[in-house]
Design brief:
It contains 4 helices and no strands. It has about 140 residues and is mainly alpha-helical.
């Protein structure tokens, strides 16, 4: 069923793929970071630290990918859904993370510190690569 453009519902863009065209690059970088974090964790603290560091990177990768997909979908269906669905996605993600962390602090597992560092590394690398990608895309349009 095609959407008929109205004042409330503008026509969808000609090429909606630009909303997710950065995901293959970010997925590749995240996979490399996951392998690096797991290796570094193993050398620093053994198998538990390796699992924790890799899990931290994986948590960030899944979280950021989910947000990207929900926001891209909402923008193609109805741009007015961007804010409510984006906020709902963040509330659900951070609520789940809060529940996991609230119960997790009671578990005596040697990989917790590595998990935290994996999350930090995942956020920094994902954000940096996405900022670089956006800058490159904008500069490509300017030149």
């Amino acid at each position: 069923m095609s959407q008929v453009p109205t004042e409330e519902r503008p026509a969808p863009p000609a090429d909606p793929a630009w909303r997710i065209e950065h995901l293959p690059l970010l997925s590749a970088v995240s996979t490399a970071l996951l392998l690096f974090a797991g290796s570094a964790g193993f050398f620093a603290g053994g198998p538990d630290a390796a699992l924790g560091a890799a899990a931290g990177v994986l948590i960030v990768t899944v979280s950021f990918t989910m947000s990207t997909l929900v926001i891209a979908w909402a923008d193609t269906v109805r741009p007015a859904l961007l804010m409510p669905l984006g906020m709902l996605t963040y509330v659900v993600k951070y609520s789940l993370l809060g529940v996991v962390l609230a119960y997790g602090v009671n578990i005596d597992w040697p990989g917790w510190t590595a998990l935290g560092w994996g999350i930090v590394a995942g956020v920094v690398v994902w954000t940096g690569v996405q900022a670089w990608w956006v800058h490159r895309r904008v500069m490509r349009k300017v030149i």
